[in-house]
Amino acid sequence: MSNETDETERRRSAEAEYRKKLSDLKDVKAYIHLAKMDKKILEDELAETEKELEHLRGCGYQVAHVIKPYDNGRFIVDAKVSRYIADCSSKLDKEKIKAETRVFLDNRTMTIMGILPPELDPEVQNMLVEAPGNITFDALGGLSDQIQQLRESIELPLLNPEIFRTVGVRPHKSVLLYGPPGNGKTFLARAIASNIGAKFMKVVASALLIGCHGEGARLIRAMFRYAREHQPCIIFIDEIDAIGGRRLAMGSSGDREVQRILVELLQQIDGFNEFDQVKVIMATDRRDTLDPTLLRPGRIDRQIEFPLPNKHARMQILHIHSAEIAKEGEIDYEAVVNLSEGFNGADLRNVCTEAGLSALRADRDCVINEDFMKVPTSLSGVPTRSCGIEENLASNGNCIAVNEI
Ligand SMILES: Nc1ncnc2c1ncn2[C@@H]1O[C@H](COP(=O)(O)OP(=O)(O)OP(=O)(O)O)[C@@H](O)[C@H]1O
Ligand SMILES: [Mg+2]
Question: Of ligand 1's atoms, which has the minimum distance to the CA of residue 285?
Fold first, then answer.
């Protein structure tokens, strides 16, 4: 009996011992797991620190241009200081490296370590209009002919070049928008850009004259290079008269700089093909001063006039700009249109704004017919922009037309 009790006791203690060992094993396993996790964290930190040390010890990279492939996956590169025959990192796709590709080289081994995007002039970058704004053609009144002509010359060849090949005609390269100020030239160019998914580069020609000697011509080259590399692309040169004026035999150094820019522009326009997906739109309110070499077909293939709006167009523009205005009662648009003879699109937009301000002055939160009627009479006394530079010059005997200087 006592033997049996001893045996049971021994078993119980062995079982308790076993359970304790099991629990210890579990703890040890949990400890190992935690230690492994710590080790992983430390290893990551070590790798990161080593990488940083490597960066600190290294002497950077050099930017270079590939001149041409050499042999066995090696390339001749131009690194400004000197030319090298450079190996290429095994991680790079050699197929992507061609002549003119911008790459970076390891400073010690002169191995091509990566491909860089093409160099972009910061000033050309500024000309790129990321979003020309969400402008639809409906926001322009009385310009249906101009819209159709511009879409035919710019949009159709960009979106559907095949049609031209089928018919066998050469698409237009560039278009000139001209007419008195404030009639929607710039506005239409922005509308066309927002309508096509093409890159849109905008420059006001006078901005090319700022900067040192030769800078404008360099910018023109950079713009066209960018456009060729990022087709389809529209280049919009506003106020082209600033650089496109008639060339004179004699001139100051400033005139010669302007001429240099114009010659560069002509060369660049001649340099691309009608079937390239690059189109140029120029705008001016002084077509009469432009150099005939710029105006000839092949440089400017189509000239689209933006005249002062007639009665029908004025009515449309007025409706567009007054659409969002809170109005009360009947507005006699017919009378406003009759009173605004000689007004341009910008003036008509102003009429709507002034009517709104007149309502505010009278402590009203909506515009009534009277507000609209007051404005054209008050505005017509002021010489509006619609008078045009020519007319202003003509009315002022002291002024000499620019092309006569
Ligand atoms: N046909 C039009 N329909 C609606 N709005 C117009 C129209 N024409 C002009 N406008 C208004 O006038 C403003 C000025 O027009 P825009 O800047 O296009 O004139 P522009 O012809 O380029 O003048 P400039 O020769 O002085 O540069 C536009 O923002 C637009 O609000
Ligand atoms: Mg303009």
Answer: 25
Q: What is the CATH number of the domain that holds 250?
A: 3.40.50.300
**Atom 16 of ligand 1: nearest residue by CA position:** 184
Distance (Å, whole) CA 78 – CA 95: 19
Residues 276 and 203 in one domain: yes
Report which protein residue has its CA nearest ligand 1's atom 19: 182
Ligand number nearest to the C-alpha of 139 = 1
* pLDDT by 10s per residue, the chain, length 405: 567 888 999 999 999 999 999 999 999 999 999 999 999 999 999 999 988 887 777 677 889 989 999 988 899 999 878 888 999 888 888 888 988 889 999 888 889 989 998 776 767 777 776 555 678 889 899 899 999 999 999 989 888 888 888 998 888 989 999 999 999 998 998 888 888 877 888 888 888 887 677 788 888 888 898 888 888 888 999 999 988 877 665 566 667 788 888 999 999 998 888 778 899 999 999 999 898 888 888 889 999 999 999 999 999 999 999 998 898 888 888 988 988 888 999 999 999 999 999 899 889 889 888 888 887 666 655 444 443 333 333 333 332 222 222
Structure tokens at 38: 């710590």
Task: Based on the fold, state whether residues 92 and 175 are members of the same structural domain.
Answer: no
For ligand 1, whether the C-beta of 142 sits within 6 Å is yes
DSSP 241-256: HHHHBPP-SS--HHHH
* Closest atom of ligand 1 to CA, residue 385: 26
How many domains are there within the chain?
3
- Identify whether the C-beta of residue 286 lies closer than 8 Å to the C-beta of residue 243: no
Residue 180, ligand 1, Cβ within 6 A: no
Ion ligand 2 neighbours, Cβ < 5 Å: 185-186
Paired strand residues for 69: 75
Q: What is the pTM of this model?
A: 0.69
Ligand with an atom nearest the CA of residue 317:
1
Range of the domain at 338: 311-388
Partners of 116 in the β-ladder? 102
Q: Return d(Cα 250, Cα 269) in angstroms, integer.
A: 25
